[in-house]
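This protein record is not my work; I was only asked to verify it. Would you go through it and say whether the fold makes sense for this chain? Here is the record exactly as it was handed to me.
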Amino acid sequence: MDDLKLDSKGRRRVKYCPCNKSNRDGKFVPFIAHEAHGYCHSCGESFLPNSGTLVEKHEPIELPTFYHDRKLVSQSGRRFKENNFVQFLNKHFPKEKVKEAVLRYLIGTSDAWQGANVFWQIDDKEKVRHGKIMLYDRETGKRSKRNFNTFRNLLEIPLNGTELKQCLFGLHLKNTEGIKNIAIVESEKTAVIMSLIYDDFIWMATGGKQNFKYETLKPIKEFGVVAFPDKDAIQEWKDKSRQLNKFGFNIRVDDCMEGMDVDANTDLADIFLFPRKEDNAVQQILSKQDLVANELYKRNQTLGLLVEEFDLVHENGQEIYLNVN
């Protein structure tokens, strides 16, 4: 076995050490051309092929999910006059609507920094998995990338044999009565803003482009999903959605920003809050039912008179949006 060499650059390709510890920290270094053999800096063991130390691959032990005490959510749900994100929303939307959105997503306020807010990840069993603390500018709505923390880190809460398993922001809204379609965006901020603009969907967020994956989306597999990636993630989300749809998902990725001359990190909320005339964004974000109605309207504009005269709506009660310009 003298020809065995450690693959230090490939340590991230192995998810678990043969001793069953997670390799998320990269402490297990496999040998080149081997997956189950190498050296584990965590347990200090060398796992050599045919050495008798360990020759079979062990199944990883799945740790239970970490949950926050629900009381933390209710305790953070106050002092919104000090919350920069909520005050930014109040500048663009009716305060009553903002209040409804805050309660719907259970947005909190944090003392981590003056004006900071909390985005709680609450799963479809109403259990609190994670709390992300962020700071926004109350005038521009821009996020300070230097100011980020988590509630668990802030309170120094140990995992104690559990594992952080993030879920979609807004996943608890899956239990909303009569829900039909779900819209997925990347940032929590965008999900909240779009819920105030376009309520034809239940809006959820992955909290990062890399979280658009099977494990995160599995709880909403039975729903029709429309994904609205940021400009720089359109192709990545399209590729992933094709893979996911092979496993029974029903995901359509909207690419309305693909042809827009905007920055790579532009998201849907940017387009709607700060629209450019040439983007015509509102008319590109129509639901599938609206797209059908608009196609019929192009062929026979009498449909517009019928919609207006008889107050026609979609089957789900949503208003029919016709592009009459």
About this structure: Confidence is low (pLDDT under 50) at residues 52-58, 281-285. The longest helix spans residues 234-245. Residues 2 and 48 are 11 Å apart (CA to CA).
